[in-house]
# Entry
Amino acid sequence: MGTQLLLQFTLALTMIIVAAKAGGYLSTRLGQPAVLGELLIGVVLGPTVLDMIHWPLLGGGHLEEVFRLLAHLGVLLLMFIAGLEVELESMFETGRPAILAGLLGVITPVGLGTLAVLPFGFGVPEALAMGLVLAATSVSISAQTLMELGVLRSRVGMTLLGAAVVDDVLAILLFSIFTALVLGGGGGVLAVIWVLVKMIAFLGLATALGIWGLFRLGAVVDRLPISEGLMALAFVIALLYAWAAEALGGMAAVTGSFLAGLLLARTPLRRSIDEGMHTLAYTWLVPVFFVSIGLGVNARGLEIEDLFLALTVLVVALVSKVLGAGLGARLGGFSLREASQLGVGMVSRGEVGLIIATTLMDDGIMDDRGFAMVVLMVLVTTLLTPIMLRAMFSTARPRFQPEES
# Structure
């Protein structure tokens, strides 16, 4: 039985990785990010079309839990890498417009998203969950488009990158507070205070240990005659921080792995860790995560009335980012055109939103219906953002920062 299960797992994993890489390749050839192709491949392989995981050849569904665990591991590594790539210094360099755009670019989607889905029978926690998912921006597609247009180094481009950092950090923080309070079991004001105390204590202790200990520990391990000792240490730290965030801090595990990456990003070991972790994660675990999202979506189960809900979610996703981030940039001193360009650049959703939705679904806060809406919203906003950006920059160019000498 064990050998048969191993053979089924090996075949299924091979099929998923090959399909993910093929989908990612085709997507990039069409000028879209690889993640879009991986998501679409997952939808095709899932119950919407082929229902691959339930084929008798692959055990008829016995591997479902195995791939769910692998997907969770991929999520933790993905958030760890996201933390490694965040440069807080760049955020502060872009100044007030980036901070305001990031803040309002999170607050507005949370508020509008929550209000928009309440009439569709969502409870308050479920509606807030949808709002949180709408808050998370994926700026990679926008950055690539601006690079192709030759305006990434413009004031709009650099501020967009800074605003995306604020957006990600705030979205993860709000998500952690939400899950801690909703899953904490209630208990009134004292329970809320206790949740906040645990979160603050964890963040403070974890940050202090990271600042004072991680670099020293990494430097020592890097000098030891251990095969890939530094990579093993980084992997262990990501997992340990993820465990501690949820078990001790009452926060989401992804917040812990994100924090671990954020702390290691401030050490001279960052480049070595980043390269090794990219190889480890993007070879198989991250593709498994994105494909597994599609495997969990069953569009056949959507009713006709859900189409209006999907349209509502999509419109709110588009309008809330342009309005919120654009207003923040305008308050920060941008012209109306520049603010509109930045707002459009913040529209696309991606990895962070999918991670939040997956976690909420596993915790029972978001149902299959809401999860399907999220995946559809991510796919459509990812497709529309480059088109809208090209249109916004076609008639006028923003002001450029002077080139460094």
